[in-house]
């Protein structure tokens, strides 16, 4: 923000205007319009007016010579970055504008706190791509540097297709914006849930998704990689093709190396692990927790733990899975622990028992409907959904959602679980998703963010 926009600047100019009020009564021209005022007391406002006009004209002159219209319609007027950015530091995208002399922009397909994602066409290959355009503000550009380092690490000498990770084709800086060019994928797992009217998908499809995501996590957990995704959720898992069930994991914008953790406030709330909620040291096990939440949600159609805030999030976890081990609570910094728990002299207990009691939160077995025909009884009698299969799924989910990360299964261990190794010969083939589907409407959802 310019220093000219501060409250202090406005306060400093208000007193002189009051002092000149009597003078204005003797003049036919209002005091604030007189040249002497504009070049003295009102100098700051004068410069602001000149700057706005200058950059607006400059933006008009420098726009591409196409007849395309702006596709970034929220705050399209040029405000920052020499008029190229809106008031949120997003680049003002114009249809058919060409980035890096190669990529023809078509339409914005997603927007988030990081910036925006635009569908484009590669003029050299004719392929559609997704370009992630980071905001030009310094803090976002610094985080983008970390994202670029991680994407480069993942790509070096590795077949990302084999590991179910989105492929970064190239990256560049354009008009002070870091840009990432990714392969264009289809819609995400949250959109697939919407297609099911939030009734969830079959256990067979859950099994397929689980196997593929675990292969990704096993790759990320390799000692030479050691990357924590930090934001695994249905919106960040995309179908490769709209008529097939193969997936890829996207959005490494919040990721870090396990030995270079930068943030304590990570993971989307519904998928946030107990150790992160408690402010404890974390590692790749937090992604395993998120996966457990995702697999439960993909089958039930609802988040496993849908807290309205961090306190409710923790209480929902406690009501379903029990109290975290005392060792975790003992080690938790008080500023985190005191939000949820207190010590009564005998042991740890929730700080607000009445709030816990008021929550309509089932235990994990009842959430899955292990002995009642699945969630809401909707899978009663369906092939591949009998009690024995649900018992295996419940066991896997329990291991993925172990409260203590030391007890949580690793991706490699999970891949060897009986639920995921069930013979496909006794199960129906996964149903492909519909040929087309609208974009989601929840915040930061459904965007291909790399």
From TrEMBL:
What does the UniProt keyword field contain? Answer: ATP-binding, Kinase, Nucleotide-binding, Serine/threonine-protein kinase, Transferase
**Can the keyword Transmembrane be found in this entry's annotation?**
no
Record keywords: Membrane included?
no
> Domain Protein kinase, which positions?
103-420
Comp. bias regions, Polar residues = 62-75
Q: Which GO terms fall under molecular function for this chain's record?
A: ATP binding; protein serine/threonine kinase activity
Q: Which InterPro entries match?
A: Kinase-like_dom_sf, Prot_kinase_dom, Protein_kinase_ATP_BS, Ser/Thr_kinase_AS, Ser_Thr_dual-spec_kinase
Cross-referenced Gene3D superfamilies: Phosphorylase Kinase, domain 1, Transferase(Phosphotransferase) domain 1
| Cross-referenced SUPFAM superfamilies | Protein kinase-like (PK-like)
| Bilayer-spanning residue ranges | none
Residue ranges for the region (Disordered) are: 1-35, 57-77, 426-450
* SMART domains on file: S_TKc (SM00220)
Where does this protein hold ATP? Answer: 132
Say which family it is in. Belongs to the protein kinase superfamily.
Q: Which PANTHER family match?
A: DUAL SPECIFICITY PROTEIN KINASE, SERINE_THREONINE-PROTEIN KINASE MINIBRAIN
Q: What is this protein called?
A: Protein kinase domain-containing protein
């Amino acid at each position: 923000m310019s220093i000219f926009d501060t409250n202090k600047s406005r306060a400093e100019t208000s007193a002189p205007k009051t002092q000149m009020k009597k003078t204005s009564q003797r003049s036919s021209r209002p005091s604030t319009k007189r040249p002497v005022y504009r070049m003295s007391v009102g100098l700051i406002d004068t410069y602001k007016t000149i700057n706005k006009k200058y950059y607006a004209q400059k933006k008009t002159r420098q726009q591409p010579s196409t007849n395309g219209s702006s596709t970034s319609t929220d705050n399209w007027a040029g405000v920052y970055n020499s008029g190229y950015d809106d008031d949120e530091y997003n680049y003002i995208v114009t249809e058919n504008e060409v980035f890096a002399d190669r990529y023809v922009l078509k339409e914005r397909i997603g927007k988030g706190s990081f910036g925006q994602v635009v569908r484009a066409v590669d003029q050299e290959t004719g392929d559609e791509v997704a370009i992630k355009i980071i905001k030009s503000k310094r803090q976002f550009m610094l985080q983008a540097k970390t994202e670029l380092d991680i994407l480069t690490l993942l790509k070096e000498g590795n077949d990302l297709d084999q590991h179910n990770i989105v492929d970064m084709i190239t990256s560049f800086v354009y008009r002070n914006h870091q840009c990432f060019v990714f392969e264009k994928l289809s819609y995400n797992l949250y959109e697939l849930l919407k297609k099911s009217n939030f009734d969830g998908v079959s256990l067979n499809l859950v099994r397929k998704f689980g196997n593929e995501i675990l292969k990704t996590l096993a790759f990320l957990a390799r000692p030479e990689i050691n990357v924590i995704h930090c934001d695994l959720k249905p919106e960040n898992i995309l179908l490769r093709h709209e008529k097939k069930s193969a997936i890829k994991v996207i959005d490494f914008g919040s990721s870090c190396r396990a030995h270079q953790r930068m943030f304590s406030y990570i993971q989307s709330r519904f998928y946030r692990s107990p150790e992160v909620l408690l402010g404890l040291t974390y590692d790749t096990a937090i992604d395993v927790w998120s996966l457990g939440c995702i697999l439960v949600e993909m089958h039930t159609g609802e988040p496993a733990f849908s807290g309205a805030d961090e306190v409710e999030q923790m209480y929902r976890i406690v009501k379903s899975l029990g109290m975290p081990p005392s060792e975790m609570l003992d080690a938790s910094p008080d500023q985190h622990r005191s939000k949820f728990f207190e010590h009564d002299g005998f042991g740890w207990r929730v700080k607000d028992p009445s709030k816990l009691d008021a929550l309509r939160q089932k235990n994990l077995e009842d959430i899955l409907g292990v002995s009642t025909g699945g969630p809401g009884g909707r899978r009663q009698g369906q092939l591949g959904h009998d009690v024995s299969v649900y018992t295996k799924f419940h066991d896997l989910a329990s291991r993925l959602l172990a409260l203590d990360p030391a007890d949580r299964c690793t991706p490699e261990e999970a891949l060897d679980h009986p639920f995921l190794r069930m013979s496909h010969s006794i199960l129906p083939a996964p149903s492909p998703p519909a040929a087309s589907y609208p974009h989601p409407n929840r915040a930061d959802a459904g965007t291909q963010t790399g």
